[in-house]
Amino acid sequence: MSAEPIVRARDIRIWYGTTRGPVKAVDGVSFSVGKAEILGLVGESGSGKSTLGRGLLGLLPDGAAMDGELTFEGVDLLAATPKQRFAYRGTHLGMIFQEPLTRLNPLMRISEHFSETLKTHEPSISKAEIERRSLEVLRVMGIPPSRFSSYPHEFSGGMRQRLMIALALVLRPAFVVADEPTTALDVLVEAQIIKILHDLRNSFDTSLLLITHNLGIIAEACDRVAVMYAGQIVEIGAVDKVFADPQHPYTRELLRSTISLSTTALHSIPGAPPDLVDPPTGCAFHPRCPDALAICAVTRPIAYARDGGAPRSGSTDVACWVASAKSGTVTLTPAEAAPLPREELADADEA
Amino acid sequence: MLLIIPMMWVLLTMVFILLRVAPGDPVSAAVGGKLDPTVIAARRASLGLDRPLIVQYFEYLGQVIRLDFGKTLSDNRPVLDIIRDNGGATLTLTIGAFLFALVIGIPLGLIAGRRRDSIADVLIRLFGVITYAAPIFFVGLLIQMFVARPLGLPTSGIASPRTQFMVGSAPKTHILLFDAALSGDGNAFMDVLIHHLLPCLTLGLLVCGVFIRLVRVNILQTLQSDYVEAARARGIPENKVIRDHAFRNALVPVVTVIGLQAAMLLGGAVLTENTFNWPGLGTQLVHYIEALDYPAVQGLVTFFAAIVVVVSLAVDVINALIDPRVRYR
Amino acid sequence: MKKTALVALAAGVATTLALAACTSSGTTSSSSAATGSADWILGTSDTITALDPAGAYDIGSWNLQYSLFQQLVVMPANSATETPDAAASCKYDDPKTLTCKLKANQKFSNGDVMTSKDVLFSMQRNLKINDPNGASTLLASISNGKTEGQDLAEGAITTPDDTTVVFHLNAPDTTFIKVLTTAAGSIVDSKVFPADKLLADASVIGSGPYALAAYKPGEQAVLKKNPNYAGDRMGKANQIFVQFYKDASPLKQAVSAGEVDVAWRTLSPVDLADLKTKGQQDVVEGQGSEFRYWVWGFNSAVGKEAAVRKAAAYLIDRDAIATKAYNGNVTPSYSIVPPGFAGQKDSFKTVYGATPNLEAAKKVLADAGVTTPVPLTIGYTPQHYGPNAVDETTQLMNQLNASGLFTAKMTSAEWKQYQTLYKQNAYDLWMLGWYPDFLDADNYLAPFLVKGGFFKNGYNNDQVNSWVGAEQAETDTAKRATILGQLQDQAAADVPLIPSWNGKNIAVSSKKVAGVKDTLDPSYIFRMWMVSKSG
């Protein structure tokens, strides 16, 4: 891992305004991503991972507010003017979206998409140069030059995702957020795309934030993983370490719920993700946590390093009273450490 | 496309039935108040109006197939002559109105869509609803009184009498605007053009309400679309995003709607022509309906229907040209 | 990108076209010539059925025909006596024979010389063609009377030489000379007009003060002075543009904006009042002969009771109708025959008084033993006679009801249905209107009083029938006036119909125009040759 992270996020909060009150979609998230590193972001639907991804690019809709500290290559993005942020997008920050079928303008040829992107950031670029760079990145993605002038509807889903990736990368951004890039694709195509993403750091030196709910992909393609629940990162660390030894009860339950060829019985976490307008007090996971302590219902957990080291490193943390108490990082009074009586939870109401 | 034939047949039959069912007949409409009933009956018989309806119906269908529209009953003009002499005026009126509607409606729709729920948006939508709902003759009257008179614009007619006489007496294309241009007389051309302004504006206002709402809704939709978000993620500035992605894609459905508006435009043209004394097919149609002149009304309505069909076909073709997805299929 | 380019291209083409047209030199021909006044523009909402005299019976068509054709004799403005036009003289030898002598060397506008053959030809073709919209019924006195194969009666017209025409009428008819002054008596060029069908409007050739320079149906007719005209009604202006309007509203806009110089027929009372107030144009009034009246149905239980009819005649308040429903644009009528006709007398005023008389109405009903209030169905038609017809009917209904002697209700039907319904006894009392074909009292008596009239109301009085025949045969004016008086008195006594009002002949003209007032008279002939414009 290189010394200075490309992206450092500290205490990011993204809240939406609604008629019922503010939705705390992202509520105090800290992490960092190094150069040519792939960080996986995993969580259930509604955990806030997509919002976080968009927030990093500055693509939040009206009615959302973002606060905290977000540094990219040493520059504070949240303090930048909108014009500067526009300048960053495409050139330094890139995004790969979920549904490739609808992400391309049906009235524009692929070549027009590329020339638009390139011309926006380099107004004096020549037509020949546009073609050269576009074809090069398409070659990496496995798209033949003969399809350069085709329209989007002439491509399959998998090819369109590769086009998206090519478009996102044509300007060689240093940091790319991939928001569930394979969710809409079938398994074989998915494998191809993941391989492409994994190889990006070799081809282009790109750092990647890979957002997904699929733990298998994390295991395969990522260096580190961050687990999100109810707008907060509950655990973050190297993939092999976290998967081998999950310290947060949620991570543990998540891993147990994963279906593989050796699964004989289905396991699920009772209950449902919380309402983000009015989240539970203390630790957001406590109503569903099998190991909950009394303090969990009262005070929000503080993130400490997984291995008991420095607190809140952003590189490898866990935010859990149970885990911190077990590792000795934190001492709890007997009252705080008393197990929390669990209410009978109804079977998870589908959201 | 083959559906056109049964469509036209239904239309022709309906026109026939409606005309015959309406009380009265061409003869009493013309001279009913003056003549002895036996004389009227005799005249009706001489026109073949007392034969069984079925006989008259098949004769009528036969004539249509042979494209023989016959002559009018009330004033003995060949119906095709009516179409030839007056079609041009309706043509330039509707095209002009359409242009006005585009020029007014599309930008306003764009503004309303971009500034959703702002004062501008509310006012524009209100404007669109009012122009769509207000009766054309009333809007026309207001325009005549409050726009034409103060600005010194003509309140009626397609040209001043002198221009009408000079250009109209040697028609080449039978479209007065083009004939005036071809005649090389700049004053005459400007005269006809200026006479077009207010009627086209009046009719255009009717249709522009449709365009405003359509463009607005489409802009709102395209602004939400995924490729717009993806474009923003690539750093394309907001103005370019709106222009090249949201706006262009919002206009595609407008073309289809245009085809649907052709019928509304023709219907509105009839009222507009009445208000502005415009010598087009709409005026003729009203005149012959009042006279219950069967051949004339049948011929004109058939012609209108044919126009609508042609426009629909043209719209389909244009749609294929601008939307590559349609071509693919 | 492509779409905006297309739009821009179209706009560019349009602008360049406009600019090119602007910069090209253009000349509009000037209106002044060596003689004659400036051209002027007439606006009217009357429709034209045909310009061929054999093909029309309506005021709009006749209006143009009077300028395009000559008749043997014509009615000068505001006169009840005919004067020579194509004929130097026209006289009754006896009530069945009429001899006319043509002026020498008259030419049609195309140079053809007019002879007596043209006169015979014109009358004969009118009868033979028997067009459904035509006025051949006016020529009944020279017709062979057949419905199939109508033609001139054998020997009805003889032409002893090129300038003499003799009419041998079927029956004594002193009104026939008046028929010759109508447009049905127009003389057409036998070399141009077909004998058995109508000639296309744009091709008509006549010998009148003006010739047709251009004609677009429903839009415009352009009249140019006829250089070959040598009669007494020489045109003043060189060129006249007649613009046709579908509706009163754009016509009113046009005349008040100065886009037409004269507007004649038909502006609503409200429009006229507005123009009068603004005062920028002249609202010119002349005496008219339009007649509005109420017909009784003798086949209904109510209508056949004479006392009921007389009571209503006592109660009608004509002044109220004229002011409230028509803004004073009409004059109350007290006779079947309008004022200004030879032999006219206000018989209804004599019998029933000029103002409503409630006591007399009560008395006549009581004397006849009629129980009151009498239920009455009044019929009218909402559009054919103008939008104020409903106001007029409401007025009458209220007047009858206010007396307590009637419970009247009003019901309407569209014109086409109305014509059938009133003949089927749908109403006890119904509204009708009338324009004269020619200016003779007979034109208000024969069509109304004989055998139920053209409206078939069931009235039949043998004495009346024989009087009508007598006045048609009477050549002595004084004796004829007596018979006409008797007829009007009898009509007031029997009340087959109640006269309501006479319309005025109204036009709006720009202040630069002269001669309009002179032509507004009961004949409704708009003598365009009398009108001129200055500047």
Strand-helix topology:
The complex is a heterotrimer of chains A (351), B (329) and C (535).
Chain A: E1 7-16, E2 23-33, E3 38-42, H1 49-57, E4 64-72, E5 75-76, H2 82-88, E6 93-96, H3 110-121, H4 127-141, H5 157-169, E7 175-179, H6 187-204, E8 207-212, H7 215-221, E9 224-229, E10 232-238, H8 239-244, H9 249-257, E11 304-305, E12 317-318, H10 321-327, H11 334-337
Parallel strand pairs in A: 3-8, 3-9, 6-7, 7-8
Antiparallel strand pairs in A: 1-2, 1-4, 4-5, 9-10, 10-12, 11-12
Helix pairs in contact in A: 3-4, 4-5, 5-6
Chain B: H1 4-21, H2 26-31, H3 37-46, H4 53-65, H5 79-114, H6 119-133, H7 136-151, H8 161-168, H9 176-182, H10 186-224, H11 226-233, H12 238-275, H13 281-290, H14 294-322, H15 324-328
Chain C: H1 2-23, E1 40-44, H2 59-68, E2 73-74, E3 83-84, E4 87-94, E5 97-102, H3 116-129, E6 157-161, E7 164-168, H4 176-181, E8 210-216, E9 220-225, E10 239-244, H5 248-257, E11 262-264, H6 269-278, E12 282-296, H7 306-315, H8 318-326, E13 330-332, H9 347-352, H10 358-368, E14 374-380, H11 389-402, E15 406-412, H12 415-423, E16 429-434, H13 442-449, H14 462-473, H15 477-494, E17 497-509, E18 513-514, H16 516-519, E19 532-533
Parallel strand pairs in C: 1-10, 1-11, 14-15, 14-16
Antiparallel strand pairs in C: 2-3, 4-5, 5-7, 6-7, 8-9, 9-10, 11-17, 12-16, 12-17, 13-17, 18-19
Helix pairs in contact in C: 7-10, 8-11, 13-14, 14-15
> Element order, helices and strands of chain A?
EEEHEEHEHHHEHEHEEHHEEHH
What fold name goes in the CATH topology slot of the largest domain in chain B? MetI-like fold
Helix segment tally of chain A:
11
Beta-strand fraction estimate of chain A: 15-25%
Residues in helices of chain A, as a percent range: 25-40%
Alpha carbon gap, first and last residue of chain A: 40 Å
Sheet with most strands of chain A: 8 strands, mixed
Radius of gyration of chain B: 24 Å
**Over all CA atoms, what is the radius of gyration of chain A?**
21 Å
The major pleated sheet of chain B works out as: none
Q: Number of helical runs of chain B?
A: 15
CATH superfamily of the largest domain in chain B: MetI-like
Assembly type of the shown chains?
Answer: heterotrimer
Task: Give the CATH architecture of the largest domain in chain B.
Answer: Orthogonal Bundle
| Overall pLDDT confidence of chain B | 84
Helix content of chain B: over 70%
Low-confidence stretches of chain A: none
The first-level CATH class of the largest domain in chain B is given as Mainly Alpha
Helix and strand element order of chain B: HHHHHHHHHHHHHHH
